[in-house]
Input
Amino acid sequence: MTTIYFDNNATTRVADEVYEEMQPYFRDLYGNPSSMHTFGGQVGIKIREARERVARLLGCDPSEIIFTSCGTESDSTAIHGTLAAAPHKRKVITTRVEHPAVLAVCRDLESRGYHVIELGVDKSGRLDLNELERQLDDDTALVTIMAANNETGVIFPIERIAELVTDRGIVFHTDAVQVVGKIPLNLSKSPINLLSLSGHKLHAPKGVGVLYVKKGTRIAPFLLGGHQESGRRAGTENVPGIVGLGQACELAAASLADENTRVKALRDKLEEALLNTCPDSRVNGDPASRLPNTTNISFEYIEGEAILLLLDRHGICASSGSACTSGSLEPSHVLRAMGVPFTAAHGSIRFSLSRYNTEEEVDFTIRKMPEIIHRLRELSPFVQSARR
Ligand code: PLP
Output
């Protein structure tokens, strides 16, 4: 059975070109880029080249790129680093729908005496910018709001948000882990101060990420030790990962058009067909402002986990909007924040595509899904009790 991989918001396949480019840096060119000798120096040159390639994709200066180990580290560095640089300020603003890499840090800050505001969203997953504006005050050190949601794909207007926030002299960070490589970004004239990305979401390997720090933004280092990354992030660099990320960024720039045409068309075809062939289904998230690769669909009265298991039997990988915690299926915090009814949130499935998906894969899924939904509905206690 071949695998049909529709879980690209969780992680992506390393591109062949990325894999090739990384190879020499595991075994042959293993020098430390900080060493004085030529053997290390040639590795240092390759890191410089990767930094330039990442900067080109983001439209920023290479000196504004800090390599990290993942999106989570970039988020933690942005938040802790900003607060450490402004110790007199005690307020942080975020949203209820952030990834745990931001939300857990903010909730930890709250338990340590910070004033944390979690902005809500409407039923389409949109933010109220007036509410954000009302919350900005002189005590606010940082606003951290994601660029697009990993579960629903809803895109937030981060340029507009960054303007509102930075006009008040407040630092703005965005977790753009799901956006980089999917929609164009140009930080050259952007007011965004800090931006996180993660290699494994854009066909680079796991274990490498980036924090973009706009020139002039005050941020203290999070990891202390050596002088790597111009003293902004200690620790010997993940050289193969960084080299791979540089190549992945170049490929991403070249495939942005494909992502927003062919991949989007595949996503739309899948979504439309499932809504038409599976009764009591609905899309979660603002269709007008969504990542081109993501659809989150609720199939009422059945459990997402059960759908995933049956999809898995056909070799189809997707993910569900509920997580099994302590024996009960807890609907995702994102769908809860959007007020998605319990029976719909439980049966939500996220399909997230990439440039490696094909029309045949979409057609196969379109054929299999209605029978899966029909079979589970026959077994559903909700449906049985409604029939009685
Ligand atoms: N932020 C968002 C929006 C994500 O989707 C993820 C991963 O799913 C992360 C942060 C964490 O990134 P990483 O896995 O590189 O730590």
